[in-house]
Write a structure and sequence with these properties.
With 94 residues, the chain is mainly α. The longest helix has 28 residues. The protein is elongated, with a radius of gyration of 15 Å. The protein starts with a helix and ends with a helix. Pfam families: DUF1145.
C-alpha cells in the first residue's frame, strides 16, 4: 500500500494550489464571474476545513499529542491531513 502516501501528498499539493488561487483572488480579483465563484469557494472551503479541524480534535486528541501546527495542517490540507494522521495512528508502533 505504498500508493497511499503518494496520493496523500498529491492531494495536499492540489489543495495548496487551490488555497493559493483563492487567496490571490482576494488580493487581486480575477475578472468576471470567476472572482465571485472563487470567493464563494473560499468561504465554503474555510467552513469545511473548520469542520474537519473539529473532527480532528474529537477523534485524535486522545490518540496523539497534538500541537497548533497539527491543527494548522488539518485546516490547510483538510481530508488529506486527516488521512495522514489516521495512517500514523493505525501503523503499529515498532
Amino acid at each position: 500500500m505504498k500508493a497511499m502516501p503518494l496520493l496523500i501528498n498529491l492531494g495536499k499539493a492540489i489543495t495548496l494550489i487551490a488555497w493559493l488561487m483563492m487567496a490571490y483572488n482576494l488580493v487581486m480579483p480575477f475578472e468576471g464571474n470567476v472572482a465571485i465563484i472563487l470567493n464563494i469557494l473560499f468561504g465554503i472551503t474555510c467552513m469545511m476545513h473548520c469542520f474537519q479541524v473539529a473532527i480532528f480534535h474529537m477523534l485524535f486528541k486522545t490518540l496523539l499529542p497534538l500541537t497548533k501546527l497539527d491543527y494548522l495542517h488539518v485546516f490547510i490540507f483538510g481530508i488529506f491531513s486527516l488521512l495522514a494522521y489516521r495512517q500514523k495512528v493505525m501503523t503499529p508502533a515498532s
